[in-house]
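User: Hey, my collaborator sent me this sequence without any context and asked if I could get a structure. I don't really work with proteins. Can you help?
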Amino acid sequence: MTLSIRAVTSNDDLDLLLGGTLGWPGSDRMAALFKGARATPSKQFVAVSSGRIVGYGHLLTHPAAEGGRAGIHIFVGPSHRGRSVGSALWREILPLARASGLPGIRALRNMDDERSLAIAEAHGLSKGSIRRESLLDLTALRTEFIETAIQRVREDGVDLVAFTPRSERDWEDFYEALLPLHQATPDAAAGSGPPPYETIRGSYAERWQVLLAQRGSDIIGITMAFARPDLPSRVVTYFSGVISSERGRGVATGLKAEHARRLRNEGWRELSTWNMEENPSILVANGRLGFQPILRVQSLLLDFNGVRKSD
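Assistant: No problem. I've predicted the 3D structure and written it out in structure-token form, which is a compact way to encode the shape of the chain:
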């Protein structure tokens, strides 16, 4: 088999290979991520055999993954596994990661995927934190609970409104409000960086995607979602957060409840969300809304100095 590794081009149909696989949000969102990281060492590669893309790999250094590490993603099509395609991608990416200036790398694996774990461990990676994906059936919302949660925050003087930017300044103000909320999340505490402004600006322009909780003119909470390209009926929660001074007042639950109701009214049928298992409070809140766990994913970590950073 003749194999070559090259940089990704705009003509590559990455969704054909990667659609529906773990950690792949779709070509459009991935392109937006790498556009925002174009001034960094971040790179995307494909493995090509007989003119066909059979593997993919990337190094994403901005935003940083947990522990301030670079995020890596390597995938090989089923028909070419066991033929050294993954090894070739690892050889391309690891030296770039070591030269990036970041302290290490983070990859992800499905908890049931022992093959990926063995490959990662062979390259020196070890097990890290676990995240859970949960799914909410928007066609079967718990109406009484949803209405009660929404009414509670409204009676507390909080407005739940769609983000409808009319100018670049509106986007800038939104991003300024998002940053401290992001920094207060468990992911940020573990060292994950915020997304670049350009990524947010280019990926959340639809009215249904962003819902704000406002007290007067102040944004006190944000929830955001994007469409999953391989499942036309499903949207994925990208972020939900409430400022620290407003926590414990039901704002997060009311915000997510109202967003779920609006998404259902827009015709979406499913809403999924990802959360760290070390964050039991959000898991309990999601359970009350009706989310059911469907998948567990583990971080796989390598630190270049041989010392594990706090996760």
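In plain terms: The chain has two domains: 4-130+298-303, 133-296. You can pass these tokens on to your collaborator as they are.
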